[in-house]
Amino acid sequence: MKLKVLAGALACLAMLSTAHALECPKVSVTDSGGAEDPVFTAARIKSGNKLICQNDGKGSLGVTTVLESSTPITPTGSGWDKNLECAVTDGDASKCSVKL
């Protein structure tokens, strides 16, 4: 079930690839134990054209989404460091926004 949620999140990111500015998506995980909305915790730009987003939930639950763009990804949010990494403690993905 978690794989289906991850596939859906990746499909949403692919549809966003035509946008000019974006942030990591909110994700929700549902399984036999119920639903959970993992909290956004970090993002990283890899190889100049991949945005990797990390969401952490209870226990060992974590969801990672990846957006691969045909154009360079530029950090625009206030949380980015010189290593193209962005981490937040308040779940605010806008601090890790990017521009395509």
Short characterization:
With 100 residues, the chain is an alpha+beta fold. The protein contains one helix and nine strands; from the N terminus they run αβββββββββ.
Number of domains: 1
Give the integer mean of the pLDDT values: 85
Q: Which sequence of SSEs, written as H and E, runs from N to C?
A: HEEEEEEEEE
What is the straight-line distance between the termini? 31 Å
| Number of strand elements | 9
Largest sheet: 4 strands, antiparallel
Shape, principal axes of CA atoms: elongated
Structural class: alpha+beta
Q: So how many helices?
A: 1
Share of residues in strands: 35-45%
- Reading side by side through the largest sheet, how are the strands ordered? 6-5-4-8
- Helicity level: 10-25%
The multimeric state of the shown protein is single chain
User: Nearest-angstrom radius of gyration?
Assistant: 13 Å
Pick out the low-confidence regions.
none
Name its key features.
single chain, 100 residues, alpha+beta, 3-stranded antiparallel sheet, 1 helix
Structural description of this entry:
By secondary structure, the chain is of the alpha+beta class. The protein has one domain. 15% of the residues lie in helices and 37% in strands. It contains 1 helix and 9 strands, in the order H-E-E-E-E-E-E-E-E-E. The strands form 3 sheets. The chain has a 4-stranded antiparallel β-sheet. A hairpin with a 2-residue loop joins strand 2 and strand 3. The longest helix has 15 residues. It is elongated, with a radius of gyration of 13 Å. The N and C termini lie far apart (31 Å).
